Batch of 4 targets.
Target 1
Amino acid sequence: MLQASGRAVTSSPPGYSRQFLQYLGFVPFPGTLNVRLEEPFPAEQPAIRIEGFAEEGKSFGECKCYRIKLNGIDAAVVRPERSRYPAELIEVIAPVKLRALGLEEGDSVEVILL
C-alpha cells in the first residue's frame, strides 16, 4: 500500500458519483487508496466504462473500473484514461473509508479481481 497523492477521481464531482452508483452499486468514500501490485494489473480484463463529462466549466476524463475485493471488502480499481501510473500501481475506491482498516504505508493487502 502506498500513500495516496494527487486529485482523486472521487473528489466527488456528481458526474462521477452518479455513474459509480449506477455501474458499481456504490458511491465511493471520498479519496482513493493507492496500491502497488507485485505484477502489472491485468487491464485486458472486461472493464466498466465511466464516461467523461463537463461540470461547472471543468472537464473530467473517462475511466475504466474493475470490480475487486480488497482485504475482503467490495471495491473497484479506477484506471483514468489520462493516467500516467505504471501498470503495477492501482487506485482503489470503495463505499467505506479504506484507511479505517488500520493500514499504514508499506502494509500488504489482498486484491482479488472479480
Target 2
Amino acid sequence: MRKKGGFLLGMALLCGLALILGGVAVLAQGSTPVINWWVIAGGGGPSSGGSVALNDTLGQPIVGPSSEGNVSLTAGYWHGTTSRSNIRVYFPLVLKGYVSGPDLVVQRIDAIGHDVQVIIANIGNTSAVDDFWVDLYVNPHTAPTRVNQLWPDLADQGLVWGVTTDVRPGDTLTLSVGDAYYIADYSQVTWPLAAGTLVYAQVDSANADTTYGAVLEIHEITGGVYNNIASTTATASAAQAAFVPAQAADAVEASRLSQARLPRRR
C-alpha cells in the first residue's frame, strides 16, 4: 500500500510539473495569458425578451480601475465596456414616509403699536395654489388652536387678509394693513395698539366646507402637529398717535372678493 501511494503521489507531482513547464513554454512563444471575466456580487446575469437584452450585476462592492507598474486591473463587471451599447436606466427613488404638499406657517408677526405685518411662508415641497384666509386676533379671550376659529369668535378686535396668489415652496409673503390682500370689511381694530397687547395670527384660518381650511397641508395629511398659528406682543411707537391705517375702498374690495376663489368663512 505504501509503494502504491508513493507511486500515485509521484505521478501527480510529475503531471503538475509538466503543466507548469507547458505554461512557461507557451509564454516563451509570446502567447498572452487570458483571465475570463468573473465577479463576486449578490446576483445578476444576462436576460432577454424579444429585441431587448439586459446584462446586470447586483451588489458589486467596488467599481473602477487600478494599476501598478505594467499591470492594470479594472474592477466591476461592466466597468469600461465601451464596445457595448450602454443605456443607463434610473429607477425612482423611494423614500419611506415622504409626503408631497404645501405647508403654510406664520413666520413672524410685527405689531408696532400703529401697524401690524404678518409674514407667512410655505415650508412645504409644493405650491399652495388655493386662495386662503389669514386671521389676526388682538388680545383674544381664548387663544386660537385650530381651523375655523375666526377672530370674532375669540376676540373683540381683529384683522383679515384674503390671499389670492400662489405661494411656492420656500416663498414668503408679507401682509400689511391696507395692502392688496387686506379685507377692511372683515377687520376691526382701535389704533394704536397698546404696548404689550397679545396678538395671534393664523394662516389658512377658515373654510366652512372643510376641517383643514382651503389648503390641505403636509401636517394635515400625516396627522402631525398643527403649525399654522403664531403669537407676539405689540411694542410702542413714538409716531403711533399720528398714524391712521389705510382702508381699501368698499366698492373695489367687494369687486375683488366676488372674483376671488376664497372659501366661505361661515
Target 3
Amino acid sequence: MKSLFTLFCFSFFTMSAIAQTTELKTAVPDPDKIIQVVEISCGKCKMGLTGKTCEMAVRIEGKAYYADGAHIDSFGDAHADNGMCNTIRKAEVQGDLVENRFKITYIKLLPEKKSGSK
C-alpha cells in the first residue's frame, strides 16, 4: 500500500511538472513584419464572440477574432481578477488573419495602466 501511494505521488508530481512547462513560441518578433498594438482578452467573456469555451481573442481595428498561437492561460489564470476573462489588455502582436482567425507569431503583453495614472 505504501508503494502504491508513493507511485501515485510520484506520477502526480511528474505530470504536474510536465504540464507547467508550456512556453510561448512567440518570444522574438520577426523584423520583416509590422508589430501591431491590439486589445487581447477572452473572446467569449469580453469580446462578444460566440463559442463554447474561453479562448484567446484579439481586437484589431474594432473587430474581434479568435486567436491561435497563445493559450488563454499563457498569461496567468484566465479567471483571476486580472485574468483574460475579466479584463481587456493591450498587447504587441505579429501574425496573419487566416480564415477569420488571427494566427499569432509574436505576442508581448503590455503592462497594465495603474488606475488614477495618466
Target 4
Amino acid sequence: MSEQQVKGTGIIPVISYIKAHYGDEGWEKMLARIPAPTRDLFRHRIMPITWYPHDAVSLLYDAVCDEFGHGDPKFCWTVGKDAADYGLSLIYKFFLSFGSPMMFGSKGPEMWKTYYQPSTLEVLTNEKGAISLVIHNLRTSLAHLYSVAGWMERAGELTGGKNIKVIVDPETLRFEITYE
C-alpha cells in the first residue's frame, strides 16, 4: 500500500481550533507532545492543497486528546465538528449544495478522497434517515476517528439533518449514521 497522506485541508482546521480555543500558549504546550520531526512540520505553514504524511494528523489528534481532552479520544469529536465548519463552509462549499444528508452521503467517496489517500470510503447503505459506510485502508488513531465522526455529524447538520447520531466501530472503521 502507498504511504497514507492527508491534505492540508484536513490539518488546518485542527490548528485553527486549538489556537482559537487555547491560544498560542496552548498550541505550544500541545505541540511539545508531538515528536520532533512532526512537530517541525507544524512549525511551518500548512498549505491547503499540499499532501502530508497521515501520521502527522494522527499524532496531532493524539496530542489534542492528551493535552486538552485529558486523554479522552472522544474530546476530538468536537474538533471534528469544527473542522467540518471550516471545510464545508469555506473550502468545499459546493458539497453543501446537495441539500440533504442522503444526497451528501452519496458524495461521501468523492469528499473523502479530497482529504485522504490512498484510503477509500465506501457507502454501504444510503437511505432516508440512515447511512452506513466503511473506511478502507486507513491506519489512524482513535482520537482521529472520533474527529471524523464529529465531522460527519456536523456535515449532516449543515445539509439539513436533525437529531443526527453517529456510531463508529473503531475495529472495522464502520460508521452508522441516523438522522431525521
